[in-house]
Each structure stands twice: as C-alpha cells, then as structure tokens.
Amino acid sequence: MTQMAHDLALLEPEIAVLLTGAGTLVCEMLRRPRAAMVSALVGLMLATALSLPLLGMDTTVFSATFRIDTLSVWAKLILLPATALCVLLVRAELGGSDREGTVYSLLCFTTFGALVLAGSGDTLFLVLGVLLSGLGAFALVAYPRNDAATEAAMKFFVFASVTGAIMIFGLTYWYGATGSTLIGDLGRLDKTPYAAALGLVAVLVGLGYKASLVPFHFWAPDAYEGAPVAVAAYLSVVPKIGALFALAQVVGDLPDHSGWQGMLAGVAVLTMTLGYLAALVQDNVIRLLAYSSIAQAGYFLLGIIALGASPLALPSLIVFAAAYAAMNLGAFAITQGTGRTLKAFSGLGRGQVFAGVAMAVFLLSLTGIPPLAGFTGKFLLFGAAIDAHFTWLAVIAIINSVLSLAVYLRIMVPMYQTRDEAAVPMAMPSAWITTVWILAFITTLGIGLAAQSLLVRLI
Amino acid sequence: MFPIVSTTLFLPLLGALAVMALRRAPARVVHGIGILTSALVLVGAVWMWSRGVHLGGFSQVEQINWMPTIGASYRVGVDGISLSLVLLSALLFLLTFIFSAKVRERSHAYVVLMLLLETAAIGTFVALDALLFYVFFEVSLVAMYFMIAGWGHEDRQRAALMFFLYTLLGSLPLLLAILGLYLGSAPHTFDMRVWIAHPPLSGTAAMLALVAMLFTFAVKTPVFPFHTWLPAAHVQAPAAGSVILAGVMLKFGVYGLIRFALQMTPDAFRQAGVVILIFGVFSALYGAFAALAQHDLKRLIAYTSVNHMGYVVIGVAIAALASTPGVRALALDGAVLQMVSHGLVTGALFFLVGMLEDRAHTRDMARFGGLLKIVPLLGWSFVLAAFASLGLPGLAHFPAEFQIFLATLRVEPVAIVAILGIVVTAGLYLRAIGQVFLGEPGETWTGMADLSLRERLTLLPLLVLIIALGVAPFWMLDVIHQTTSTLHF
C-alpha cells in the first residue's frame, strides 16, 4: 500500500462524513427530505463505527499535518453520535419545512469542520477547521429566515470574520519564528517568547470565539436565541468541543515555560464566572443555557491547562466532553419540547413526570452532582488541575459550581410548582425529542456510574 | 458470607424502584412499601450489629471494582462508630415512614425520595471509599432539597434553595481535600482504610486539606458561625424531613470530622485542635443562648441541635489533644454516644412538634398553655424528651455529655465553660414546658385529640431507647469502644 492510500485509510471516518454530507444534499435535491435524514443518520453512525478501530492509535497522516490520536479519535466518537442526535432534534423542529434536507447536510459539513479542528496537526488546519465549521453554522442559524435568525446569523458571521482574521494574522508570527506551520514544531518558540505569546493570543481569539470563551462569547447567546433550538443545541456541543480539542492540540506542543498555562487559567476564570453570573439573570431558557454552555467551556480549560503536567488531563477532557455532550443535548432537547421561557417549565415535573426527572438529572449533572456524568468529568478535571499545581483554579471552579447550582435551580424550581393553568398548554412532545432525551439520559447516568468503561481506554 | 452491608444499603433503592414501577398504586400501598422496606433495613442493621465489629479497623468489608484505573472501588464496611450510626439511621427512617403514612400529597414521590435519602444516609456511614462517600454525601443533599421544596411549609422554596446552595458550597471543599489526599497517596487510591493507616499528606498540604474538610463538616454539623442555614431549613421542612435532617444528616458532619479530618490528617488536626475546641465551645454556648431567644418551638429545637453538636465537636477536639489513650477513648466514646443520643432525643422532639403542629397549626409557644391536661400522652412524651435533651441523669444525653466533660477536665479544663450551655438549655426547656404544657388550658385547644396509634408507635421506640441509653449506656458503648479504644492518630 502506498503512503497515500495508507493515510486515506486512516481518514475513513472523515471521508464518510464528507460523503454523507454530499449524499444528503443529493437526497435534498431530489426533494426527498426523509431520505436525507435517513442518509445523514446512517452515514454518521457508519462514520462512528469506522472510528472505533482507530482507538488507541497515536499517529499522523499527510506529513504530520493531521493527527490520529486520542483527542481526534474520541472527538469522532463523541461528536458523530451527538450530531446524529441533533439530526433527530432538527427533524422534530424543522421537519416538513422547505429545504429541510439542507439542514442535515449542513450539520454533516459543520461536524466535518469540527473534526478537522480536533485533529489539527498544522496551524493551517486550524484555520481550515474554523472556516469549515463556521460557514455551515452561519447558514444553520439563518435557516428560519426571520428577523431574529438573520440578525443572529449576521452577528455570528461578523464576529467570525474578525476573529478569524486576527487568528490568521497572529499565526504568521508563529510561522515566522519557527519556519514551519506544523503544530509539532511549536517547541522551537522557546527562544522567541514574544512571538509565542502573540501567536497564542491570536489562536485564543480564533478558537475562543468558536468555543465561546469569555471575552469572545458575545455572539453565542444571540445566535442561540435566534437560531432554531435544535441548531442551538448543536452549536453548543459540536463546534465547541471541536475547538476546545484543537486548543488542546496546540498548547500541548507549546514550550512549557511560555506562560500559556497562566493565560488560559485567566480565561478559564473569566469564562466560568462571567458565564454563570450572566446566566443568573436570564429569563429565556435558551439564553440561560447559552450562558451555561459558555461557563462549561471554562471547565474544559482546567483539563487543557494540565496537559503534560498530569496523567489525568487527557482522560478528564475526554470524559467531560462526552458527559457535556450528553447532558447539554438532553437539556436542550427537553427545552425544545417544552418552550423557551422559564414560565413554560412551570409544572413540567408534575405534568410529565419522566421528562421532569430527566431534566432534573441533566441540570444536576451540569452542576456536577454525583453520581452523574458531569460529576465524573468535573471531578477528573479538578484532579488534573490540582495535580498540575493549579489548586487555586480548582477552588475557583468549585465556587462556580455553587453559582451554577443557583443558575440551574432557576429552571428546576418552577418545574415542581403547581402549573399555572392560564399559561400555555403543555405540548405533547414529539417522539424524536423523546428519543433524544432518553438516549442522553442513559448516557448521563452511564458515564456517571460506569466511567470505568471510558477510563480503561484512556489511562 | 451473606453481603449484609450492601443488601441493607441498597434495599431502600429497590423499594424506591418498586414504588416507581407501581405508578397507579394507592397511597396506602406506597406507604406500606416504604414501611416494609425500612423495617427490612432495620433488620439488616440489627443483623450487622449482631455480627459485631473487630477490635480496631473495619469489619464486614465488602468490595467490588468500580473504577480500578483511578483506584476507586465500591468498598463498604463498618466499625463501632459507623455501625451505631447505621443503626440509628435505620431506626429513625422506619419511624419516619410510620409517622408520615398520613401524607397523601404526591405520596409516590415522597416515598421514593425518602427511600433514596435512606440509601444515601446509610451509604455515607458505610462507605470506605472516599469517592463513594462523596457520592452518597451529595445525593442526600439533593434528596433533602426536594423534600423541603416539595413538602415544606409556606416559605419552603427559599429555605430549600438556601439549604442546597449553602450545603453544596460546604461540601465542595471536601472534594478538593479528597483529591488532595488521592494525589498524595502512592499508588493513587481512594481507599479510606489506606488513607487512615498511612495518612497521605503532611505539612502544609495536610493543613490545607484539613481546613477544607473542617469547612465542609462545620457547615454540615453545623458549627457556629456556619449554622445559619439550619434554622431556616428546619422551620420550613416537613416534620419528617426535620427528623431526618437533625437525627441523621447532621451526623454526617461530625462523622466526617472523625473519619476524615481526625483520622486522615491527624497531625494537622492535633495542631489545630485548640482552634477546633474553641469553635466547639462557642457553638455549644451560642446554640444554647440562641435557643433561649426563640418563640417558635421548632426553631428552639433546631438551635439546641447546634448546642448538642457543639459538645460533640468538643469531644473530638479533646480526643485529638489528649495525650493518653484512655482519655482519648473516653472523649470519643462520649462524642459518638452523644451523636446517637441526639438522634433519638431530637428525633422525638421534632416528631412531637410535628404532631403538635398538625393539631394546632402553629408553633408559637406563647399561644399554647395547659396542654398537659388536654393531651397528657403528647405532653408527658414531650416532657421526657425535653428532660433528656437538657441532659438529665438517667436519660440518653447524660452519659454522653458526662464522658465528654470528664475528658475535657483532664485535658483542657478551661473549656469546661461549655457546661454553662446545660444550665441555659435547662432553663429554656423548663420555660417551654411551662408555657406550652402547664398552667390553665385555654379555650382554643380544648378539643385537641391525644396521640393516635400511629403516633404512639412512632414515639414509643424512641422514648424507650432514650431511657435505655440513659440507664444502661454500655450496650451501645461496648460496640463504640471497640473502635475508639484502638484509633491511632
């Protein structure tokens, strides 16, 4: 087998996602939205299956520009099923609308972009990934074609253009200093601290926007609110995890004493604290969850900071990513079935007992209450941070967990109050949404109780 | 050997699943399942008791791998301290189920939550894996939150919110301490037995871990000035919730103080012993004086809990400061016995206040009077429990407090000022009894019914045990002493 064929074989999952996107588009052109959905689901599942044999590999393809390592393989195993769940959510929300099939196809292309990000071995792949996952996302947000959606997409787009330009500009410093675009060569930056710092700031701007880290988060609440709920759910999980994994790929190769840990720690504190403080005053559940997903991104940074300093760092990132995908998608799914306002949630726990229990579990898991998935993830993240001598950061993260409880109780408290009969009648949830939250519920409990099944492949 | 610890631990969870499966069952059946399950749990606890504990270390240990890659396993077992608390919890839960068999409002959810709480409470005491301990510790919090928020009194939402936020803030530092101990142990493990045998941290790290743990357990116990969540939670919680909160969940704090703080960071604990002692003394005095200022009967009892838990903290601190093993065991015996006594006595008092409130719909002492003539059974039960609570010889608190004070005199005589608390509680209970039960009966309460059969069944075991423990404390002390006499720290 030639090198080319060998490399392509390792990229089978990515290729499958790309072909799925194209195939789904063809179905849409033939005006077969249902076939488009099925093709997206089958393709995504197939790509997940193709990723399984790659577990445990640590290699690169195409002259080290793309990595097949723990991060990138787990990104596939987490993001592809998450995308499939989003497909179901989209079906429930946008099913029957004009050009429904394009949404599935855009989801596939955007996920492809996120996977490119998560496996980046070259700074240009970072740029490519940000663009790929961005272009599809703008269209997804703008899909409803009303004022709110258009405004949201516009804001999203302008933000993306500016941050993307800054990132490309900053990356030129790294190229200038190292003479290479490979991330693996970033170790050469140890003699040029200023170039290293400038480049890092630029990468933080570019990826921070994608992962909605404070202070590059402003687009997120507006975009989520304007977009269909299913798309908001998708944006809060897939591109975000892709960008965070990309950040992990980059900083893992930076010289140790270049101060990147301190810079990320500062961003982490800002992200967690401001995210939850802002969430505390929201009355719109989508905005609340948007700010919550901003704050959760800050927790990922704890694991990223500990990379190289603690053996727990990589497992913590991956377990938390899986946990976050499950619990956040679950919370969005129930919101999609219930309504966008806090008022819509009043009496949910009494009217629909099981949906209520599931929502409570998702919210408690997001807070980090054991024995749920979010706890396992955060617990490992805190452990990694302490192991890397960032105890103070773990303390701040813990204080924020208390703040987060106050945030999530704002949804949970009305759920168990008597329902105001004059309010909007409780909608009968669609079977698609129910499927999604049941799967998310099982995963949330499963990762909490049986984290060993993940850990054994990670440590 | 039959895994009795795990069976006892997970029985309530099974019961909860059964209740969830029987969604259409009437409330009577649901309460029946609750009572039956908790009765079986009590049987299990007595079985564990009959097997006994070894001298030193943990007995009846059961373990299965859970997350071997990070050194966390499912490990449970008991020693003299935890076994007596398991027995107390099992009894209080059974009585609570009997007492609340009248609850008709969302009885399914009520029973499920109570059973979940029971598993969490027993799990907290029998866990020998720090991660497992933390899981149960937190689950109890969630269940209690829903208890207060769902079945509490008028201002329950705010009280439940405050309770949840406050105690979560309190428990998270413990997570940090656990992580610190974990990273300090080599090879990394969450096995509490290993941490106790070879304390993993030393120097500043140990002191930091101790401070984090002290914060957690001070909030939970609660120790002045971290007690502010307690009166609000108690006043708003349903009577059954108050019983569990005071009788079982406050013990998590002091149990953790011994099991984690004292046993896993012993040197740091000894260095900080005087500070902890001062907190204990302040707490005991503050609780007594604050209770003196109350007009609400439930708040009054809530504050006496702060007072009684203060004595326990004194006992633990004295044990750490003591130089001879005999005094050390004396102080710890007293502290552990005080936990059990407090569970029985305060449990009975909260039940009684609940019964009074069911009849009168008020807890304001000034509005009552002469009830002893109208409801003699309720009245005399209250008098007995109140006398026990103020430390009357022959009743449950006396042998416990006696041992604590005896040890205090041998080690740190100045701290004996805490005994003032007893004088104050005596005064306030006499005043309460005078206001509520003595004097001429008012017009308002003439039709009040005395204790029903269900209520008598709830109270009888507690009152009998209060006397039994006061007259002959050795049946409980023997088991406790097996462990306290061999603790090395």
Salient structural properties:
heterodimer, A: 459 residues, mainly alpha, two-stranded antiparallel ribbon, 19 helices, 2 strands, B: 489 residues, two-stranded antiparallel sheet, 20 helices, 73% helix, globular
Strand order of the largest sheet of chain B: 1-2
Q: Give the amount of beta strand of chain A, in percent.
A: under 5%
Structural class of chain B: mainly alpha
3D shape of chain A: globular
- Structural class call of chain A reads mainly alpha
Average pLDDT of chain B, rounded to a whole number, is: 91
> First CA to last CA of chain B: what distance?
31 Å
Assembly state here?
heterodimer
Helical content band of chain B: over 70%
Number of strands of chain B: 2
Question: Biggest interface and which pair forms it?
Answer: A-B, 33 and 32 residues
Strand order of the largest sheet of chain A: 1-2
Q: What's the overall geometry of chain B?
A: globular
Name the beta content range of chain B: under 5%
Order of helices and strands of chain B: HHEEHHHHHHHHHHHHHHHHHH
Note the total helix count of chain A: 19
Low-confidence stretches of chain B: none
